[in-house]
Design brief:
alpha+beta; single chain; 14% strand; 520 residues; 8-stranded mixed sheet; GROEL, domain 1
Length: 520
Amino acid sequence: MSLKREAVSGAEVDERLAALMTNSNAIRAIASAVEGTLGPKGLDTMLVDKFGEVVITNDGVTILTMMEANHPAARMLINIARAQQEEIGDGTTTATVMAGALVSSGVEQVARGVPVARVIEGLRAGLKRALEIMRGQARPVEGLEDPVVRQVALVAGRDHGDIADLAVKAALLIGEEKLKDPTFKFSDTVVAEEGADNEVFMGVIINKERMNRQMPREQNQAHVLVIDDAFEPEEISDEALGTEAGFARYLQLQEEFKSNVKKIVELGVGLVLVDRGVADVAEEILTDAGLMVVQRVANKELRKAAEHTGARMIKRTGLQKAPDDLKKYLGLAGRVYNDEKLEQVWVLEGGGKPMATVLVGAATAEVVGERERIAKDAAASIQSAIKGGVVPGGGSLELAVAREVEKIRDSIRGMAAYGVDCVVEALKRPMSQIVANAGFNPLEKLGDVVAVQVESGKNSMAIDCDSGQVADMVELGVADPAEVKIYALRAAGEIAEAILRIDTIIKKREEKDIQLKDSS
C-alpha cells in the first residue's frame, strides 16, 4: 500500500515537473534566438516569411515580434519584451536573456527537489536587493552636453557614429525639458528613407504628397489648417435624398460646403492637412487659389503637425464658424515643401512647440528598416539616460551586483537560498553572452573580471571585446541608461516567477463549443 502511494505521488511530481520543463524549454528557445545578437560583436538574424521576404536585423524586439512562436510561455516572454520596448525603447535582448537564465536555473532547482514556493521566495529577495543596488549605482547625466550622452547613443546605435551624432543633435534641438516629459517619445521623431541624406531639422514629415501637381510645391510663412475629419459636405442618407425635402437639404449642404471652402481661401491659409478624403469641389477651389492640400494623413503625423505649427485640429462642422473664430484654429509654418523624390511633405519652422525630426538615409530599401531601428534605439537610450542616469555597460554592473546579491544568501532562511542563486546566475548571464559572442571563453573571462573588480574596487570593469582584456568600461565610454538595466531585470523577474508558478497546462475548450453546450 505504501509503495503504491509513493508511486502515485512520484507520478504527480513528474507531471508537474513536465509542465515546468515544457515551459522552460520554450523560454530557452526564445532566449537562444536573440542571445547571439548581444554586445558589440553580436551577429545578425535573418527572418524569412512564407513569401520569401527577408528581414536581417540584430534588434532583439524585432526578432521576437516577427518570429513565429506558438507556445504560450514563449508568447508570454515576447509580450514582456514588447512591453519593455514600449516603456523604455531598448534592453529587450538583455531582459530576454536574463529571463531565460532565471527560468532555467529555477527549473534546475525544482528538479533537485527545492519547492517552487521556496525558489520564488529566494528570487524575490535576490531581485529586490539587485534592483536596490542598481538604482544606487546610477550616475546622473550633466545635461545634454555631457559626453556620456553620445556614448550612450553610440552603444545603443551599435557603433554607428553617424546615427549617434544625429540623435545627439536632435536631442539638443528638442531640449532636456521636453526629453523628460513622460508623454514625449524621442524615438518617434526618427524617420528612415531610401536615398535620403542624414539630416536633423526642426519640423515634421508628412508621408504623403500634395493632392495634385497643379498645387504649389512650396509655401513660405504659410498658415496651416488641420482638419481631423473628412473634408467633404455632410452626408445625407439615400432614403432621405429620395424625398423633395431631403434633396433640398442636400443642395443646401453643398452650397454651405463651398462657402466654407472659400472662407478658407479668404483667411489666407497656405496648407490644409486632412485626416480623410477631400471632396472634388474643394480640391478644385483650393487648387485654383494656390493652396497646398494633403489628404489621408496618418493621425500621428496630423497631431505632430498640429503641435509643431500651433494649429488646433478642427472637425468639418467647425468650418462653419465665423472667420475671426476660425483664425484661432490656424497654425503657422515658416516653410512647407513637397519633396517629390521622397514623396513627402515637410512642414518646417512651426510656430508651435519645437519638434525635431531625425531623418536617417539608407542606400537601399533592404537596409532602411534596420537603420531606422538603430536610430530609434539610440534616441530612446538618450531619453532614458536623461531621465534616470547612466551605469557602466558591457555587463560589468550586473556582475558587480551578482557579487553583492551573493552576500545575502546566508541571511536567507532554508531552501529559499537556492532562489537567490538563480538571480546570481541570471546577473552573470549578460557578460557571459557578450564575451561568448566576441569569441572568448566566458568562464575564464568572468573569473578574470571578478578578480579585478574585487582588487580595484571598481564595478565598471568588464571585457574589452576587441582585445579580450579586462578594461574599465567608463574609460572606454561604454555606458547604458540605468532605466534600461533596471526595467530589464524587473521584467525578467516577473516572467520567471509567472512561468515557475505554472505546474499544470490544460487546453481550453473552443469558445463555440462552450456556447453550443450552454444553449443546449
